[in-house]
Design goal:
two-stranded antiparallel sheet, 163 residues, 6 helices
Length: 163
Amino acid sequence: EIRPRRGVIVAVMTPERIMDMFETTAEVEAMCIRLATYRITPAERSQLQAMHEASAAMVAAADLNAYDEFNRLFHEAMYRSTHNQFMAEQAIGIRARLAAFRRTQLRHGDRIARSHEEHGEILRAMARGDGDEAARCMRAHMLNASGALTNYINTLDDAGPLL
């Protein structure tokens, strides 16, 4: 954390702080997807759909590394579809702070498959032009990721690594 006139310190990442960050990103991403629903171009919509369809093979193979990279690119493409550079930059910044934790939540249970299904729900709402429903789906998607991370953390020993 950068603190004005006090320098830089290492932030303490408690489970509560991480959940607060997920809650914040859920709202920012919901805002992004609502705006993107109304501003996305046909080419961008096709790109998102193609990315989503290609990710099915990663899910089937349970390829965490490939799916994690896809997931980052997929969400960033959605941010760019807002056609609001500042909003996209903020979403990317928050996402970067949560990157390790977003990856970790994919390890829990069938989270990769559920994530893929949730992406499909978001895309279907966008295709219908329903920004409010797309935002609800995105918010649920992020909160489901938070829940999976919480479950994962709870399965670790007190001395176990978070990442």
